[in-house]
Amino acid sequence: MRTLRTSITLTLALAVAAAPALAGNVSLTDPKGDDNGPGSYLYPTDAAYKKGSFDLTDVEVKDKGAELEITIGVNASIEDPWESAKWPTPGNGFSLQMFQIYVDLDGKAGSGEQQALPGMNATFADDARWEKVLVVSPQANKEISSRLEQKAKGLKDKVVLPSKVTAKGKKVTALVKKADLLGATAPEKAGWQILLSSNEGYDKEPNNGVLARIVNEFEGQHRFGGGDDGDSDPNFLDCLAGKAKGGDDEKAAQAAMLKFDAKAKKRPVLSMVRL
Ligand SMILES: [Ca+2]
Ligand SMILES: [Ca+2]
Ligand SMILES: [Ca+2]
Fold first, then answer.
1. Which ligand is nearest to the CA of 75?
2. 46 Cα to the center of ligand 2, angstroms
């Protein structure tokens, strides 16, 4: 009897170990404490920018058939400090963060867009060029579309907007049509990169691209510091690096990847995470 039970237990254990990740689902993890871009970035001084708010922790992509449910985690509870009668947010339940999720669908060297969206100040490596980007923002899709029209007209058909965005606890969840973002590519076959920046609705700011706050040399009430006042420093605080397993080595990998050279006007070169 004991032998039989051991054998059953062993068989079950092997079956669990051998079970592949659920087809169509993608799970990515990012280490905590690397919400400093290339290692030097500082949060704005206003109390609204709560510690951990720009620290990416994980991304879960769930295949729901015609739709994808993409859940992004940060290391602070999501808040809506700027919701007001004067500047009402569209009810997404957050106002600080802004996420751009880039996918490489063909994995072919030199194929796809090399530059990230305007305002991000980042390029993609030759073997990581992107075909589509999903923008998850507290701004209404109408606002984002109008900004794209002004700043990134040539990229408009490559930018995908979610059908629904919600915030709960430390997570923001976006629903998007699978075919719009991935075409016929399965989620686990795509390359993934996510840039976490800060939502900036002020339209008089010329360098904020598609509604993302910029990083300066010195931090201020609503400006990140530790970067440069030119257009070589990446305007996001956190991203995926290495294999996106969340190990401490990925902090160093991110710092190396996001290095910029303001004098030589050299922007960082990003990689994609492949499963
Ligand atoms: Ca992080
Ligand atoms: Ca590509
Ligand atoms: Ca990171």
1. 1
2. 39
Q: Residue ranges of the domains in the chain?
A: 22-270
Closest ligand to residue 158's CA: 2
Q: What pTM was estimated for this model as a whole?
A: 0.90
Q: Are 182 and 132 in contact (CB under 8 A)?
A: yes
What strand order describes the sheet that includes 26-29? 26-29, 56-63, 67-74, 171-177, 164-168
Mean pLDDT of the chain: 90
According to CATH, the topology of domain 22-270 is: Immunoglobulin-like (2.60.40)
User: Cα(54) to centroid of ligand 1, in Å?
Assistant: 8
Evaluate if residue 100 carries a pLDDT over 50: yes
Average pLDDT over residues 85-113: 88
CA of 85 to the centre of ligand 1 (A): 33
